[in-house]
Amino acid sequence: MMSALASPTMLIAAMALFGIGGVGAVLLRKSDRLANYWSSAFALFGSVTALVFAVSMLASGQTFVAQTTSDSFPLLSFALNIDRLAAFFLVTISIVTFFCSLYGIGYIKQYYGRYNIGYLGFLYNLFIVAMLLVVTSSNGIFFLIVWEIMSLASYFLVAYDRHDPENVKAGFLYLVMTHIGTAFILLAFILLYVHTGSFDFTVIQAAMPTVPAHIKDSVFLLALIGFGVKAGIIPLHIWLPAAHPAAPSHVSAIMSGVMIKTGIYMMIRLFLDVLQPAPLWWGIVVLVIAVASCVLGVLYALTEHDIKRLLAYHSIENIGIILLGVGSALVFSALGMSGLAVLALTAALFHTLNHAIFKSLLFLSAGSVIHATGTRNMEKYGGLIKLMPATGLFFLVGSIAISALPPLNGFFSEWLTFQALFQGIAQTDFYIKWLFIGVTAALALTSGLAVACFVKAFGVTFLARPRSQRAEKAHEASAVMIAGMAGLAVLCVAVGVGSSWIIAQLQTIAQGVLSAGDHATLVTVTSGHILSIAEGFATVSAPLLSLLLIAVPLVVWTITRFGINRSQRVTTGRTWDGGTDLTSRMEITSTGFARSIILIFRGLLKPSLQHSVEYEDAASRLIPRSRSVTLSVQDVYRRYLYRPVFIGFIHLSHWIKNGIQNGNINAYILYILVVLLVMLGLVGVW
Amino acid sequence: MQQLPELEVIGSALQDNVRRLFKGSLAIRQIDTGSDNATEQELAALTNAYYDIERFGIHFVPSPRHADMLLVTGPVTRNMAEALKRAYDATPHPKLVVAVGDDAIDGGIYKGSYAVLDGVSQVIPVDYQIAGDPPSPLVIMQSLLAILDGAKKAPKQKGQS
Q1: Which of A31, A104, A509, B30 is least surrounded, with the fewest CB atoms within 10 Å of its CB?
Q2: Between β-strands B26-32 and B58-60, what pairing exists: parallel, antiparallel or unpaired?
């Protein structure tokens, strides 16, 4: 039974189901409803099949390797290598795509009659297949092909709502950035090919001892930039807050939940597996980038009042937290502490899974809110919990999870990351110790700011009173959309409560990646599901914690209600408003909530505060007609990084046009002559 | 032994009652429902240096949410009726409502005007009345003493005043 489920036929079946879904949607494009149901249903089947396959692969612990080569293209082989790491990413992707497809059935309805649904269904299925292949391929060329299919499919999905020129612009930015990334990846693979003679990951790994150190370092930097663009590390993130809001919400959920994780997957695969052994400074570089991403990501999220951009910046923050784990794993393995490396990588993998679940949940519930109110601007929300209670509950669950509050899943992965960092402080010598102290402080700051940001996001969106007419008329999401969100919310709780078991499983995956044996086991699960780090350095019990969190408030409530306040009566009345009528204009706005934090960090964020007053009598300026305050955060990356590069390229182009490509035919003949001579000279030398 | 002035006698009796009924602190919210300000001046005099009613444990609070007692003045103009009702609803149980001044009792000199509702009792239930147009501070204190003398300790179950 198990072997049947874990056989590659299942994976092929999953791909085929996605294929049928995609092609069928195009054929059924005349009918919006049929195309939607067809593509979503097959995406659901495909996700389930892929999930069953990946889970049984993990359970049986086997590795699946397949390779097809053809004589006409000797370098290209459709090589699949599904080890535990790949299977883990397959699980993550298929969980998220399953619930997003379910949600999509309801969400896509708003595009009926406006856009071609068949085209959406095709791209959606293609996108998922490409992601599944990205994490399973083990050949550089094949990888680049599916990577490019994934990028292009997601580009077309970002620009799908094309009547809004903002979305088309965002799509273009994404297209440019992702191709810059691909260029760097291509260079990295070519460098590896030149020195190992193969694009195949296993061959490259075997040939790694012969590769000179400076080549390895160059490959590391190129791959870090290339995959960093996809993962959205700062300062390569600029496409992310533009592209994620533009896409349909269930697609943003997949992009933010799992697509950016393919960048993380490749970093783990290359840095911790293929390119090992790695020098110490790689880990330090990754840690520094991770700190920048998580602190700046959450600060930018605080400044946002576009709900999807806010979530997109939180993706950057969480990528930073995952990279903290990856970076620590690199540092530890460079220092020869394989046990700690396993611990750090386990934390990174667990946070990858958790972020995929709660971020897609948040994007889906944000999608319901946008669907109901027609705007992404949080200032125009308010009081939605009364109108859409289910969505509000799911957003709250996602917020608690992403804020790393127990007993939901986000808490346990962040706890594990902290433990890895604490062990780094405890067991390393002077310089590395101080590095870890700084990194730990940065993570603590990030966690605190994340809570502040989600207090803002949830409060401004769901509490108080509606601040716009559309928000007053908001409606609850449809049943399938609720089902999609509910599934993810349940997973948030289940993964949190069952975290000790999952961490134990992930530890074996991490041991497999790092080729560390069983002796490198720092996380132990004792009886009663108590998770213990480094023989009792720190312990936590998820079921006990959850139980206490439910029991303690219940006991306190019972005692106060039936003991202390027995004789008192609870009356529900109007809010005392001093005789005036409460209006939504009295509420704190998203900008107002974030203002104090923005001003604390004004050195980093460079906010601009603009007051403008319009007077009734312009001459004497006594009676103002209207006052407005604009608080905005400028995009320092575009201004100080991308714009100079852009201007440099323009100058270079001018120089080439005026200097070399001058339209003088005699000069061109001279170029040909020079090139010919050089070529002849080279041939002569060889 | 020097005989205490009348104010001190009433005051210490009030203090005893406040201690007995309100654990030493009676919070009063005063509501002006369109009064001619005469009663307000007398009430304000209660907190001046001469009467200084706060030393007996009685103080005026800025919100009905904090109040044990509502002192309502004025004949209740049409515009203030809704506000008076809301303030009454916002006062926690158990509560005492006292109409102060003739116009608060039945409209007084404004009785029958199209603009007023002729007294607080037309809008909210009134427990006690203090007559006078306006009543002097000492009369108000005496009346409060009489009210508190008559008031029983709030019953200790799910009741209200």
Answers
A1: A31
A2: parallel
Note whether A555 and A618 are same-domain residues: no
Under CATH, what is the fold of the domain B6-150?
Rossmann fold (3.40.50)
Q: Please indicate, yes or no, if residue A647 is contained in any of the structural domains.
A: yes
Q: Tell me, what's the ipTM? A: 0.74
pLDDT means over runs of 10, chain A (686 residues)? 70 90 89 90 93 89 76 71 90 94 92 89 94 90 92 92 89 92 93 87 86 90 94 89 91 93 93 87 94 92 90 94 94 89 92 95 94 89 90 94 89 91 88 92 94 93 87 88 94 90 88 74 70 74 86 92 80 81 83 86 83 81 81 80 90 86 85 92 79
Compute the half-sphere exposure of residue A217: CA atoms within 13 Å on the CB side of its CA: 7
Give yes or no for A564 touching B (CB within 8 A): no
Domain extent at residue A463? 294-562
* Whether residues A631 and A523 fall in one domain: no
Domain ranges of chain B: 6-150
Check if A571 contacts B (Cβ < 8 Å).
Answer: yes
State the Cα–Cα distance between residues A201 and A207, nearest whole angstrom.
10
Nearest CB partner across the interface for B83, out of A569, A571, A579 = A579
Is residue A510 domain-shared with residue A442, that is, in the same domain? yes
Domain match, A499 and A418 both: yes
Q: What are the chain B neighbours of A579 within 8 Å (beta carbons)?
A: 83, 86-87
| Tokens 């007993």 found at | A407
* CA atoms of A228 and A289, how far apart (whole Å): 10
Q: Do A576 and B156 touch (CB under 8 A)?
A: no
CA distance A567 to chain B (A): 5
A393/A459 same-domain check: yes
Is the domain of A432 the same as that of A349? yes
pLDDT digits (tens, 9 = 90+) for B141-161: 999 999 998 877 655 444 443
Residue B90: list chain A partners with CB under 8 A. Answer: 573-574, 576
Together in a domain, A447 and A306: yes
Last residue of a domain, one of A531, A562, A593: A562
Average pLDDT, chain B: 88
- Do residue A574 and residue B90 have CB atoms under 8 angstroms apart? yes
Of B64, B156, B160, the CB nearest to A576: B64
pLDDT for the residue numbered A274: 87
Number of domains in chain A: 2
Inside any domain, residue A311: yes
Domain annotation covers residue A679: yes
Which among A527, A544, A562 is the end of a domain?
A562
Nearest to A593 by CA among A469, A465, A454: A454
Shortest distance, CA B54 to any CA of chain A (angstroms)? 24
Residues A137 and A227: their CA atoms lie apart, in Å, by: 15
Does the beta-carbon distance from A576 to B90 stay under 8 Å?
yes
Chain B neighbours among A 575-634 (CB < 8 Å)?
Answer: 576, 578-579
Q: Is residue A414 part of a domain?
A: yes
Whether residue A636 sits in one domain with residue A537: no
Give the closest residue to A326 by CA, choosing from A266, A377, A371, A385: A266
Residues of B in contact with A569 (CB under 8 A): 93, 158, 160
Please tell me which residue of chain B has the smallest CA distance to A569.
Answer: B158
